[in-house]
Amino acid sequence: MKERLTHFDASGAARMVDVAAKPETQRTARAAGQVRMQPETLGLATSGDAKKGNVSAVAEIAGIMAAKRTDELIPLCHSLALSEVAVAIEPNQQLPGFSVVSTVKSFGRTGVEMEALTAVAIACLTIYDMLKAVDRDISIERVRVLEKTGGASGDYRRAE
After folding, report:
1. How far is CA 127 from CA 23, 34, 35, 123, in A?
2. CA-CA distance, 147 to 45, in Å (whole number)?
3. Would you call 129 exposed, middle or buried from its count of C-beta atoms within 10 A (0-12, 13-18, 19+)?
4. Are the C-beta atoms of residues 151 and 25 closer than 8 Å to each other?
5. Per the domain annotation, does 101 fall within a domain?
6. How far apart are CA 53 and CA 142, in angstroms?
7. pTM
8. How many domains is the chain built from?
9. In this structure, is residue 6 part of a structural domain?
10. Neighbouring residues of 129: CB distance < 8 A, sequence distance ≥ 6
């Protein structure tokens, strides 16, 4: 089976996909990522003593704001009316670091995977920004779609 990339026309030029003929359905997507750091950095971040404030709270708001502006960041994304964006950030001692999960919902003609991924990526970058002064070895890892529902292509759930 030969797949066709939808963001290119027959001549290979980039294009925004025309979704006008697609039916509106409830769309959801969940994405996740993680921020790995030194145990001492995680302790500082979770103690509430980080110089720039509550790391998780600031990063959650940054992720929500980013999801709402995905079409401004990713050139061929559609502007979407999002009905819900949630970002959850939890300390993870096993990493050590933070686990980040976003959930995005919309009722429309195209999926919200890019919005969910953008929320996670920006939340992770915000955590990095807030803690980089004490730990230059922080890494952002495993940003990925966990699941999506709605649309003609059907539901998807990552097998992990």
Report:
1. 38, 10, 8, 6
2. 29
3. middle
4. yes
5. yes
6. 25
7. 0.89
8. 1
9. no
10. 52
Q: What is the pLDDT of residue 115?
A: 96
Which residue has 């980040």 as its token pair? 100
Q: CATH code at 94?
A: 3.30.70.640
First CA to last CA distance, the chain: 25
Per-residue pLDDT, averaged over 2-30, amounts to 76
Give the three-class secondary structure for 151: coil
- Active-site residue identified among 129, 135, 137, 155: 129
Rounded CA-CA distance 26/49 in Å is 41
Which amino acid is present at 126? T
* Whole-number pLDDT of residue 49: 67
Residue 16: both structure tokens together: 């925004």
Give the integer Cα–Cα distance in Å for 64 and 79: 15
Cα–Cα distance measured from residue 119 to residue 106, given in angstroms and rounded to the nearest whole number: 15
A 10 A CB-CB count for 104 gives 31
Residue 157 located in a structural domain:
no
At 116, list the tokens: 């969910």
Q: 47-86: per-residue pLDDT in tens?
A: 876 666 799 999 999 999 999 999 999 988 889 999 999 9
Helices (H), the chain: 39-47, 55-68, 70-73, 113-131
Does 135 qualify as catalytic in the annotation?
no
Residue span of the structural domain in which 57 resides: 25-150
